Amino acid sequence: HLKPAKNQGTVGVDLGVKSLAVLSNHKRFEALQPLKKSLSKLRRLQRKLARSQKGSKNRIKLVLEIGELHRKIFNYRQNALHQLTNYLTTHFSRIVIEDLNVSGMLKNGKLARCIADVGFYEFRRQLEYKAEQRGCEVIIADRFYASSKTCGYCGQKNDELRLSDRRWKCAHCGAEIKDRDFNAAINLRRYTERPG
Prior knowledge:
Layout: E1 10-15, E2 19-23, E3 28-30, H1 34-51, H2 57-91, E4 94-98, H3 102-106, H4 109-118, H5 120-134, E5 137-141, E6 168-169, E7 176-177, H6 180-190
Parallel strand pairs: 1-4, 4-5
Antiparallel strand pairs: 1-2, 2-3, 6-7
Helix pairs in contact: 1-2, 2-5
């Protein structure tokens, strides 16, 4: 059983590919993306494996090396997620995250590897079991809640916002949104299950 959370109220968590998570208390967890760093090495080893002779000692050595690299990648990822989920569940009594359509995102070839590498499914699994043991509440914001497109100052939605717009100015109140991910985290912190 885990120690109960130190109650610091509610936190909004914006998960991303560039940063693993941006929190509404200004804290940022960088995505290690261990796969990215190891991918070129993995490709090189797999090319060597394809050219190696079946049954040769060299081939067996390569198979073991590839297996070891996969294990390292898995451990990096697990470690990063454990650090994040431990921090969240030891400090906050309510944690608000987005309901990410992971399977839909994984269909997007370009994003898929990054998303799989960051491990969103695993993040949610770890967060939920740790929260349960520490007595904190995990709130999943509605999938259609526009946390990134809503102004964190006045609450107006900016439908013109594109994914590439990292900074924007609210047409309604004139506020400058300098960090899109932090703005999303603030909105998630304010989210309740019954908006409005």
